[in-house]
Design goal:
Radius of gyration: 20 Å
Number of strands: 15
Strand content: 25-35%
CATH class of the largest domain: Alpha Beta
Largest sheet: 9 strands, mixed
CATH superfamily of the largest domain: Dihydrodipicolinate Reductase, domain 2
CATH architecture of the largest domain: 2-Layer Sandwich
Number of domains: 2
Bound molecules: nicotinamide-adenine-dinucleotide
Order of helices and strands: EHEHEEHEHEHEHHHEEEEEEEHHE
Structural class: alpha/beta
Length: 349
């Protein structure tokens, strides 16, 4: 950090990198100096729209830019681990997009390199940084008692991102909606439950829309000559070391409406988080329900500020590499179980 300015480079100049450029540029004392993106038109958009001074065609060209304190990785999932590992070894802090890695093996390596280098490695699970979920978490910690059951879902009716591109290719994405958007719902659910250690998973996945080109959404850069070999719906039953269980559902395409919610049950109360927070408990020996309408704030901004603070102070991020690893281990087990007719898969620790 020179002259008090925290300097960032963007690895990947696709869709989500625009959010990172906007949000980081809005934080005082932060400069987005460079973007790495192989597609020329996308590079140009970044330099023109955000005034980013340097544009290169591959993330590796960011690594020896001495001015950079941190690299924000918005690359296809298969490149998350290679880029994060290279960046940390080059002395940069890393904010990596979710899911943290293509699979648990990649995630494990990232965790190890983070420990070796001591650099900040944080996962962009922005759903954790809003006021509503923070209130729900505080209430869960203090008042729910033993939390033993959770359900969470991120369901889209017609939202397959970038059909045919890396998004719908198992070798580059790792999986479909389970890893892509289920990750947000599951992370919030586990956060409310105190992030218990998962021990086994039984799951089924389906591909009823994607292979026929149905259910496309408007995110990403579709590739009509590409292909679709991931799921478009996943349903999983996850068991934890402390006896708790969670049901996770995620879809990119289905004949159900768009929904994103998390609900957890404890011995002293239950919480349902969707657009608002609902708390169900007993008072004076009678059931009462409380609804909280949280302030509409910006989870991405809160998350990005938290990242800068962690880099500057060495604090472990709230959405750490360890959380990323837990989620990747669950997703590996989901896909393994689904490939074995839903047979329960034990998670190796
Ligand atoms: N946090 C969220 O809610 C959220 C939302 C959307 C996407 N994401 C994640 O962000 C990541 C990127 O998603 P996206 O929607 O921006 O995808 P995208 O396809 O729009 O962007 C990825 C970009 O990476 C570029 N790229 C490929 N190889 C590169 C290399 N070697 N060096 C530099 N750039 C390279 C591609 O050309 C592309 O422009 C994914 O991991 C995705 O899961 C997160």
């Amino acid at each position: 950090m020179k002259n008090g300015t925290f300097v960032i480079g963007l690895a990947g100049g696709g869709c989500i990198a625009h959010t990172h450029a906007r949000v980081f540029q809005s934080i005082p004392g932060v400069k987005v100096l460079a973007v790495a993106e192989p597609v020329e038109a996308r590079r140009k958009e970044f330099t023109e729209k955000y005034g980013i001074e340097r544009a290169v065609d591959d993330y590796s060209k960011l690594l020896d830019m001495e001015e950079l304190d941190a690299i924000v990785i918005s690359l296809p999932n298969s490149l998350h681990a290679p880029a994060a590992i290279d960046a940390m070894k080059a002395g940069k802090h890393v904010l990596v997009e979710k899911p943290m890695a293509l699979n648990a093996e990649h995630a494990q390596k990232m965790v190890e390199v983070q420990k070796e280098t001591g650099k900040t490695l944080m996962v962009t699970l922005q759903g954790r940084y809003g006021t509503g979920i923070q209130l729900a978490h505080k209430y869960a910690e203090e008042h729910l008692g033993q939390i033993y059951y959770g359900r969470c879902a991120f369901m889209r009716r017609s939202g397959i991102p970038g059909w045919g591109s890396w998004f719908t290719r198992k070798d580059m994405a790792g999986g479909g909606p389970c890893a892509d958007i289920g990750v947000h719902a599951l992370d919030r659910c586990l956060y409310l439950m105190g992030y218990p250690k998962p021990v086994s998973v039984a799951a089924s996945t389906y591909a009823m829309f994607g292979p026929d080109g149905r259910g496309k959404g408007d995110w990403g850069y579709p590739e009509p000559d590409g292909y679709f070999d991931v799921e478009d719906l996943a349903s999983a039953f996850i068991r934890f070391e402390n006896g708790a269980t969670v049901i996770l559902e995620a879809s990119w395409a289905s004949h159900w409406p768009n929904r994103y919610w998390v609900e957890v049950l404890g011995t002293e109360g239950g919480i349902i988080c969707s657009d608002n927070i609902k708390i169900y408990t007993d008072r004076l020996e009678a059931p009462i329900n409380i609804t909280i309408e949280p302030e509409k704030d910006n989870g991405s901004l809160n998350m990005s500020k938290h990242f800068i603070e962690c880099c500057k102070t060495g604090r472990t991020p709230d959405t750490s590499a360890w959380h990323g690893l837990v989620l990747n281990k669950i997703f590996d087990a989901v896909y393994q179980s689904a490939a074995n007719n839903g047979k329960q898969v034990e998670i190796d620790w």
